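The methods section describes the discrete structure representation at length, but only in general terms. An entry of this sort, consisting of the sequence and the corresponding backbone structure tokens, reads as follows:
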Amino acid sequence: MKKISGKVFRKDNAYFVLPISLDNYYNQIKEYKNNGYNQVILTADVLIKILKQEFVNHSAKILQVELMDNQDDYQNEVNNLITAVSEDRGKSIILFDELADLEHSDSIELRNVKLSIRNSQENLIITISNNGYIVGEGTTWFVDHLSTIITNVLGRN
């Protein structure tokens, strides 16, 4: 499968997931900035809202929620909850209740979230990082899909 990456930018109060490569990352950032785009940071509450929307509305499978800080005990607890949810989606309320604490925490933030989204043609694995960098394998369908989701989430903040 083809690896596809993008980054969340804002221009004129609209949000976009624009293509970006790690090979020439900073030059691409500079070029987008020169064209009026600004980088967007995805805070823990935004990443959690994206997870919830994908989980509920698109039956996404949560594969990973990586914490920013070295909180090994808490990371293990989150990992165990993700495993429990993968076995029984009904346990998602426990996971989302646990993650809700991150929305109000100053010390623990999310580094990234990884999920699996199925569309009619394929199963896509996507990682969304707090710096707005998104990487996945498959078709560009997920770029448009995530642009819509991110616009909906950020538009409500």
Remarks:
- The helical segments are 25-34, 44-58, 72-87, 92-100, 141-155.
